């Protein structure tokens, strides 16, 4: 018996140390509920300053526009928003890790002055799959998100050592802000599998959860489900997220149906993307429902700017033609609201 005991102990030790990366390691449900209860109702938007055409222009030193960030977060504060979802990108970190982290901290300082918490997003499969550092191209007039860039996009296949760079990037950022109360959640991968990638995104999705989890952040980890047909990706995200996040740009009944389906997981729910007026997802019908269900609510877009998200996806308009209605966004650059009635709805729900 003693002859068998030692090898058996070695096997058990090996299995514990080498747990497969697709096994859940997420928070207990009660810890997730307690975390969410401590924050109250989260309401905000996906934020990029109006002077930035994409994530690179937001975060590179030459175009990191603190004056605009400060002014526009003030617009959000005035209507009672209390949190922003903000996209990062690995390229500014590769160029200057310390400078990039300092700019992140500066952004967090500004947001905190406006009583805004922050959800940071790492990877993204949406829109243009090629990018470069330095000056970014001008927006294509009338085209929705014409210069938004993926991270890492096709570069992951073309650059031999990029995966190791991405691992170091994720771990460094999480390690640097893992105890920072200004950061309330890490959204590890935006819409994996989109733009035709499908399950090709699953290996990186699994790895980014592992990399972030290894740093033991005090904040929860998540990745939002966005397409019910992505069964394998959805299964992984739902079973590994500490808090359930999702995207839904549909009208009330269809959105409510998804809410009921996701509530079965028993974890806090946060809608990290909604509000596309022409699709029937608006502040007057979706935001009240999310508040009633105590579901976090992050609309897309704050100030109309270089991302061109006032224009609908797949419906470009000639240069200078103003869409009616706007697809996303709430304010003009000077702080005037697109719709005074919408502002009344938002302020009524936020208590402003």
| Average pLDDT, all residues | 93
Report the β-strand fraction as a percent range: 5-15%
Q: Quickly count the helices.
A: 13
Order of helices and strands: HHEHHEHHEHHEHEHEHEHEH
Oligomer: single chain
Number of strands: 8
Amino-to-carboxy terminus distance = 72 Å
Rg from Cα: 21 Å
User: Structural class per helix/strand content?
Assistant: alpha/beta
Report the principal-axis shape.
globular
Strand order of the largest sheet: 5-4-3-2-1-8-7-6
| Sheet with the most strands, sense and barrel status | 8 strands, parallel
> Helicity, in percent?
40-55%
Parts with pLDDT < 50 across at least 5 consecutive residues: 4-21
Outline the structure in words:
- By secondary structure, the chain is α/β, with parallel strands linked by helices.
- Helix 11 links the parallel strand 6 and strand 7.
- Mean pLDDT is 93; it is low at 4-21.
- It is globular.
- The longest helix has 17 residues, at 97-113.
- Helix 4 (66-78) packs parallel to helix 6 (97-113), helix 8 (162-177) packs parallel to helix 9 and helix 9 (202-214) runs parallel beside helix 10.
- It has 13 helices and eight strands.
- Helices cover 40% and strands 12% of the residues.
């Amino acid at each position: 018996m003693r002859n068998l005991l030692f090898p058996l102990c070695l096997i058990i030790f090996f299995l514990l140390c080498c747990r497969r990366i697709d096994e859940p390691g997420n928070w207990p449900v009660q810890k997730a509920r307690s975390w969410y209860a401590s924050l109250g109702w989260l309401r905000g938007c996906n934020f990029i300053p109006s002077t930035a055409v994409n994530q690179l222009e937001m975060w590179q030193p030459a175009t990191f526009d603190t004056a605009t960030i400060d002014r526009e977060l003030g617009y959000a504060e005035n209507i009672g928003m209390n949190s922003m979802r903000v996209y990062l990108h690995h390229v500014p970190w590769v160029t200057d890790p310390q400078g990039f982290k300092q700019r992140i901290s500066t952004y967090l300082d500004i947001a905190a002055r406006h009583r805004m918490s922050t959800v940071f997003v790492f990877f993204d499969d949406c829109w243009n799959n090629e990018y470069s550092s330095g000056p970014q191209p001008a927006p294509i007039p009338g085209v929705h998100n014409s210069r938004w860039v993926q991270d890492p996009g096709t570069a992951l296949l073309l650059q031999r050592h990029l995966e190791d760079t991405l691992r170091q990037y994720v771990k460094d950022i999480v390690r640097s802000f893992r105890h920072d109360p200004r950061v309330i959640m890490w959204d590890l991968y935006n819409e994996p599998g989109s733009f035709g990638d499908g399950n090709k995104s699953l290996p990186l999705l699994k790895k980014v959860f592992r990399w972030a989890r290894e740093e033991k952040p005090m904040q929860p980890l998540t990745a939002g489900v966005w397409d019910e047909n992505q069964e394998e990706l959805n299964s992984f995200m739902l079973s590994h997220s500490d808090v359930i996040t999702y995207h839904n740009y549909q009208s009330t009944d269809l959105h409510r149906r998804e809410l009921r389906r996701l509530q079965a997981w028993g974890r806090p729910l946060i809608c990290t993307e909604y509000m596309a007026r022409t699709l029937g997802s608006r502040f007057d019908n979706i935001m009240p429902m999310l508040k009633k269900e105590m579901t976090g609510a992050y609309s897309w877009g704050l100030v109309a700017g270089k991302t061109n998200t006032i224009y609908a996806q797949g419906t470009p308009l000639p240069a200078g033609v103003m869409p009616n209605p706007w697809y996303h966004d709430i304010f003009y650059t000077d702080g005037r609201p697109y719709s005074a009635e919408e502002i009344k709805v938002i302020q009524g729900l936020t208590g402003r």
